[in-house]
Every structure is written in structure tokens, then in C-alpha cells.
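subagent[fold] <- orchestrator: predict structure for attached chain, return C-alpha cells only, no commentary.
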Amino acid sequence: MIETKDLAKSYGTFEALRGIDLRVEEGDVYGFIGPNGAGKTTTIRILTTLLEPTSGEAHVCGHSVWENKDKIRSIIGYMPDSFGVYRDMTVTEYLHFFAAAYGIPHGDRKGLVGGLLELTDLSYKEDALIESLSRGMQQRLGLARTLVHDPKVLVLDEPASGLDPRARIEIREILRELRRMGKTILLSSHILSELQEVCTRVGILERGKLVAQGTMEEIIRSAHPNVDVVVRTTDDARAAVVLRELRGVLDCTHDAERNQVVAKVSEDLDLAEIGRHLHGRELGVRQMVKKDPSLEEVFMTLTKGLVQ
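subagent[fold] -> orchestrator:
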């Protein structure tokens, strides 16, 4: 649905993007992450035809950003990190205004607006002035506006920025519903824990370069080829010694304070094999959990904290 090839953008001698190859498949919720100044917003503006690249290619649903700007604008929904709202309008008036701007026939607008308000859980605020809405409600209204023309692709730049925990959860649930509806979503955010909850694939950008891209599992594996396994047994101190004998266990420590053993193992070592080894040495297993790194840990591993 979205694909770039050697995409670059320069401002004089400053290279904001340095040849990125981005790929977002149909039905993806693609998390686009990176430090401030990495080039995320520049990429998004190119994909939404608001900015021309210096070189390279970018396509949305097969349409080139160089040659098919109008077509891309008709199939893409863009929600910038900061969007203007007409604060003296009501919620319903605001959505009707944008429906008219997109050429939605007058007879279809009432049903469309009602459906969008229901999707974003704003029906009970349909007659409220926008200036009376909380930040979270205004974000949901902005998302509703983005959906007015039923775009195939959504590009959302920091949709949860500045929201409290409840509002972030509400936005996350709406994104899940949109994915179930068949939308393809490119999502930029600094809230990495939220991205890990909702994204199917991730791309990490640093200093204008794409340093990693893939499914969450692929990204985690590339950053942390070894994993931690937390084990609780009938004799944790002895279990720590016994597990070191097992091929594929790289390190093992006994955490007496938490009454557990933490084993660092190669990614291909099966948990069942660990269990069999412990049982063979007459150690009962009370609990065994594979602990995958968080997206924050992966991000810190793959990036160096450099800014342009």
C-alpha cells in the first residue's frame, strides 16, 4: 500500500532523509518511530503529497507522489500532530463542513456523520461546541474528520500526543477497530508501549535512515537474538547450577530476593527442553515464562540517540 525506494530529502546541504526504503503492506498498522529530528514528519509529508522529495520514489496504493498527487489525496486520510479546529462550530457542524468539502452528497452526510460519531464515541457530544471538548475528544474528532471520505490509507502523526492514559487507550481501541474495517495505517508516535500493543509492523528511523523494519518479532530478534527465561522451581539455587549445564543456556543467575532463576538462552532453545532438563534432575517447575524485550528496549538497542 505504501512503498518508498531510495527516498531522499535535502534542504541545501542538510539531508533530512537519506535514501529510505519503506514498505507498508495492506492491512498493516505500521509504527513509524524515531528520535525527534529523525525525519518521520518529513517522510509523512512526502507520502501525503505536502512535500516533494529531492530524489527517489514513493508510491501510495501504486500511485506516485511525483505524478499522481490528486489521486493519492483522494485515497489517503492524514491527521497531523497539530491540526486546526473551528472552535466556534459544533461537533456535527464540523464534520458536515468537511463532508461537503470532500464532495459527499448532501443526502448522505447525516448518516455518514452519525456513523463517524459512533465510531469515535462522540455521539453524546454531537451538539457540543468544539472549544468545550477535552484534548482527547478533540483528537477523536480529528480522527473522525480524517475518515470522512472513507480513505483506504490513514497516516497519523502523533495521534496520542498530550493525551492522558484513558484517552490514549480510547485512541488505541479505535485504531484496532479501523484495522478490523480493513484500513491500512501508518502511525507515528513517541509512546512506544502503545505502539507495541497495536502495531503489526514497525520501522525505526534515525538521522534520516531506516535502521530496522519488520514485524515486532523480527525487530525484537534483530536487536536481541538471545532471550531471558524466568523460572521458579522447588530449589532455585540448585536450578541455576543445573540450567548452566544445558546447551543453549548462555548465562543463568539465581535471584534470591524474587525467588526465581533468570536464564539467558539462545532464541532457538525450546522452553519444553528446559522443563525436561529440570525434571530430569528432580527439580519441580512451578513457573516458566519467556520474557520478550519491550519495544523501548529494542529502540534503545538499535538507535544511538543521535540527532541531525
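orchestrator: received. Logging for downstream: The mean pLDDT is 90. The chain has two domains: 2-221, 225-292.
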